[in-house]
Amino acid sequence: MKHPLIDALGLVQHPEGGWYRQSWASGVDVELADGRVRPTATLIHFLLPAGDASGWHKVASDEIWIAQQGVVVLELGGSGEEPEAEAQHTVGLDVEVGHETQVLVPAGTWQRTVPREEDALVSCVVSPGFDFADFTLLD
User: Fold this and answer.
1) How far is Cα 121 from Cα 5, in angstroms, rounded to an integer?
2) Is residue 19 helix, strand or coil?
3) Is the peptide bond before 115 cis (omega within 30 degrees of 0)?
4) What does each of the 139 residues of the chain score in pLDDT, given as a tens digit?
5) d(CA 69, CA 126)
6) How far apart are CA 107 and CA 32, in angstroms?
7) pTM, to two decimals
8) Going along 26-106, which residue ranges are E strands?
């Protein structure tokens, strides 16, 4: 059954897993050291329906995960050639049980999510702004 937020938020499947839609991109651009131009920041909705997960991937910019609904377990895998699980963060709203409402994933750090039994919706801010040219997905 299709999750109702997919249509309500206009989400599409993300190559890493889950569903997403860019909801904002800064109107101010920045030139990267290699001459490429990106918005200073971008923002997405990211939905992981129950049982879904994202594969190991990395982004060339800093990324901040922001809890909206449910819980996401986010694993970080370092910045080497291959990911090696180093840290785990529970992104959620119940800070009394140890959830983190915001988690920073430094640029170039491997990351993935772990399947959960509940739906989860987060927002992700990427700065400099996200571009699929700066995205690496482990096969």
Assistant:
1) 9
2) strand
3) no
4) 789 999 999 999 999 999 999 999 999 999 999 999 999 999 999 999 999 999 999 999 999 999 999 999 999 999 999 999 899 999 999 999 999 999 999 999 999 999 999 999 999 999 999 999 999 999 8
5) 20
6) 13
7) 0.96
8) 29-31, 37-39, 42-48, 57-59, 62-69, 72-76, 87-91, 102-105
